[in-house]
């Protein structure tokens, strides 16, 4: 059961910093590719100054000036004036024709990509296996949940493995909430995420603002602007998952690739929720994960069938309400070092969850109402004490009060109305 999350400590800058390339050779991408990228950006967003061009492509101004000189010599762009001592650049008719031809081949026009070699190097250096997880961090991340100390210890131990964890148990026990809280432990650390990766002229976009949350205030000035300094990512995928989603996604219109979920989750956490209920058979999904979990590498396929090898440096969480032995064979379960059963709440835990939910929602209640609820669940409805029940029933009370224009208050009448609305009648 969730409550407001406590403020996180200030993030310290990582010792792994991608340095700003000083020359074209240090960028790690072909000069001709960079010139073509600049021309596409100029066609789509120009005219502008050299400094604005530099900011768009995220490269040093001196490098953009060098590349601009060659483009101008080929009469693909021209100087149209000077603004604050910096040349104003516009594309020529010849450059426009060339840009249209380039865009028909590949429409990528974002920040300059990093090389695949550079991506591999920094992803390995920032591996979740290198993050030390201690009790204080785990307690901060799970302060909004009611969990036993031994469960917290097992979660912290699993995170220190930098590998994977299997959360299983009955529905409504809190597996998804626990899984989605695990990234909060790692969120106290940061990682560098590239806007895009280039290999043999092919582009794979990696940075996703919906997943990668930038920490601009902690970004060092000397860092390469082609990388974004982010909290370690967390990616959640559930029943919508197909086997095709775990490979590169090629857009036939833009003609470049989007990274799959596990590549976006590199240096962070990937959560497979409701495992066993995906649109792909569990055996096929498990076979897809065996090599990455074992060898920390993954193989992705380009159009044409060529395979590329990328790091698999992430913490994988499998959450399911099905029995693990019914989903996976022993060989796969052996590769998941930690298995934790998440069970129903005890009466004491249920009371604490109930009080937290009421406090969070600002709902006053009659003394003894939680004991009445526990008695009703166990003996009247013959229901277990699912940790989700306090939140769901208090929500019912709040919704009814809003409809009636009243301040929510949980008494016997309100509780009975919530129970009748929430639970199916006995057959």
Summarize the structure.
By secondary structure, the chain is of the alpha/beta class. It contains 17 helices and 19 strands. The N terminus is likely disordered.
Describe this structure in words.
- The chain is α/β, with parallel strands linked by helices.
- 41% of the residues lie in helices and 18% in strands.
- It folds into three domains: 30-110, Winged helix-like DNA-binding domain superfamily/Winged helix DNA-binding domain (Arc Repressor Mutant, subunit A), CATH 1.10.10.10; 118-341, Rossmann fold (3-Layer(aba) Sandwich), CATH 3.40.50.300; 347-422, Helicase, Ruva Protein, domain 3, CATH 1.10.8.
- The protein has 17 helices and 19 strands.
- The chain has a five-stranded mixed beta sheet with strand order 4-7-8-12-11.
- The longest helix has 16 residues, at 389-404.
Please render the helix and strand layout as text.
Layout lengths: L23 H4 L3 H15 L2 E2 H8 L3 H13 L3 E7 L2 E6 L1 H13 L8 E2 H10 L9 H7 L7 H13 L2 E5 L6 H12 L3 E5 L1 E4 L2 E4 L21 E5 L2 E4 L11 E2 L6 E2 L2 H4 L4 E4 L9 H14 L1 E5 L5 E5 L3 E6 L3 H4 L2 H6 L2 E4 L5 H15 L2 E2 L3 H12 L8 H16 L4 E2 L1 H11 L5
Parallel strand pairs: 4-7, 5-16, 5-17, 8-12, 10-13, 13-16, 18-19
Antiparallel strand pairs: 1-3, 2-3, 6-9, 7-8, 11-12, 14-15
Helix pairs in contact: 2-4, 2-5, 3-4, 7-9, 14-16, 16-17
Oligomer category: single chain
Strand percentage: 15-25%
Architecture of the largest domain, CATH level 2?
3-Layer(aba) Sandwich
- How would a crystallographer describe the biggest sheet? 5 strands, mixed
């Amino acid at each position: 059961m969730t409550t407001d999350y406590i403020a996180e400590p200030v993030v310290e800058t990582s010792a792994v910093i991608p340095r700003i390339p000083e020359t074209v050779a240090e960028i790690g991408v072909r000069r001709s590719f960079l010139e073509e990228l600049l021309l596409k950006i100029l066609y789509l967003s120009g005219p502008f100054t050299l400094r604005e061009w530099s900011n768009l492509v995220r490269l040093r101004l001196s490098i953009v000036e060098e590349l601009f000189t060659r483009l101008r010599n080929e009469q693909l762009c021209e100087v149209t004036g000077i603004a604050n001592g910096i040349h104003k650049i516009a594309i020529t008719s010849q450059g426009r024709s060339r840009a249209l031809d380039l865009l028909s081949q590949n429409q990528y026009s974002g920040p300059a990509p990093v090389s695949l070699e550079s991506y591999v190097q920094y992803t390995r250096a920032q591996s979740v296996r290198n993050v030390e997880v201690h009790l204080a961090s785990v307690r901060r991340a799970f302060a909004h949940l009611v969990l036993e100390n031994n469960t917290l210890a097992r979660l912290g131990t699993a995170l220190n493995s930098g590998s994977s964890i299997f959360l299983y148990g009955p529905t409504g026990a809190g597996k998804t909430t626990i899984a989605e809280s695990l990234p909060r432990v790692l969120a106290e650390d940061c990682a560098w995420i590239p806007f895009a990766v280039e290999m043999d002229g092919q582009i794979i976009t990696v940075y996703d603002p919906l997943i990668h949350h930038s920490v601009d205030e902690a970004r060092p000035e000397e860092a390469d602007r082609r990388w974004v300094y982010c909290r370690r990512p967390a990616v959640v995928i559930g029943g919508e998952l197909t086997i095709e989603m775990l490979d590169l996604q090629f857009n036939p219109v833009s003609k470049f690739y989007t990274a799959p979920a596990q590549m976006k989750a590199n240096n962070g956490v990937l959560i497979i929720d409701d495992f066993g209920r995906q649109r792909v058979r569990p055996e096929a999904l498990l076979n897809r994960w065996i090599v990455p979990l074992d060898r920390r590498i993954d193989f992705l396929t380009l159009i044409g069938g060529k395979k590329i090898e990328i790091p698999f440096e992430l913490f994988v969480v499998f959450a399911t309400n099905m029995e693990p032995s019914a989903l996976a064979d022993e060989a796969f379960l052996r590769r998941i070092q930690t298995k934790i059963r998440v069970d129903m709440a005890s009466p004491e835990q249920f009371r604490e969850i109930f009080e937290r939910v009421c406090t969070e929602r600002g709902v006053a209640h009659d003394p003894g109402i939680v004991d009445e609820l526990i008695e009703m669940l166990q003996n009247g409805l013959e229901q277990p004490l699912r940790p989700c029940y306090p939140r769901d029933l208090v929500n019912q009370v709040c919704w009814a009060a809003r409809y009636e224009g009243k301040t929510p208050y949980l008494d016997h009448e309100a509780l009975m109305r919530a129970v009748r609305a929430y639970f199916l009648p006995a057959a």
